[in-house]
Amino acid sequence: VAGLPLSGGPMDLALDNGTLGVKGKGILGTMPVTFGWLKNFSGKTAVASKVEATLPLDASALKSFGVPDELKVSGTIPATVTYIVANDHTASLLFKGDITPAGFTLPLDAYVKQPETPGTLAMSLHFKNNIISGITGLDLETPAVQIKGDVNFASDGKTLKNASLERVKLGDTDMSLAVD
Questions:
Q1: Is the alpha carbon torsion for 99, 121, 142, 134 positive or negative?
Q2: What backbone torsions phi and psi does residue 64 show, to the nearest 5 degrees?
Q3: For 37-93, what is each residue's pLDDT tens digit?
Q4: Do 176 and 167 meet the contact criterion of CB atoms below 8 Å apart?
Q5: pLDDT tens digits along 151-179
Q6: I need a surface site. Which of 28, 73, 85, 136 has the fewest CB within 10 A?
Q7: How far apart are CA 11 and CA 37, in angstroms?
Q8: Which is it for the CA torsion 6, 12, 15, 16, positive or negative?
């Protein structure tokens, strides 16, 4: 992750046919991490690099990954992430985590999830030239909130282009939502 040093070990290195692989344990910034990293040095492959990691994400770690302050994250999320960068300047980040230990606020409804309230989060974030272009497979579940679906952004990575949310449950409100 750009800007976060990786230290510690042990780590195993392998070089094979223009591909460098590193696997092991370490400290990413201040987070313990178990990871595998693959870097292709040939432009002929679809995947330029791939990282698979298991790590605890706290508020400062999430901020370094671009999670906005408005979510007011507290606690730690034990997570599994896979980050794939393609040679065509696209990337995807697959995230799956148990959000039970964490707290956060959803600004759209002012919903506050308290730490230790059960919950899970899974999603795939898609990027083009390092700017978010969409979220697919969004699946957020807590006792009071369920959000499932896909969201696409304009080329600025901030403006909503469209969304297809097959389930949006916020307290007693339970609906599907399509935005174009």
A1: positive
A2: -65, -20
A3: 999 998 788 999 999 999 998 888 888 777 778 888 999 999 999 999 999 989 999
A4: yes
A5: 999 999 889 999 999 999 988 899 999 99
A6: 136
A7: 11
A8: negative
pLDDT tens per residue, range 28-37: 988 899 999 9
Alpha helices in 117-175 (DSSP H): none
Q: Check if the beta carbon of residue 138 is closer than 8 Å to that of residue 167.
A: no
Q: What are the C-alpha distances in Å from 151 to residues 122, 137, 176, 177?
A: 14, 9, 13, 11
Residue 153 structure tokens: 């952004």
3-class SS letters over 46-97: CEEEEEEEEEEEEHHHHHHCCCCHHHCCECEEEEEEEEEEECCCEEEEEEEE
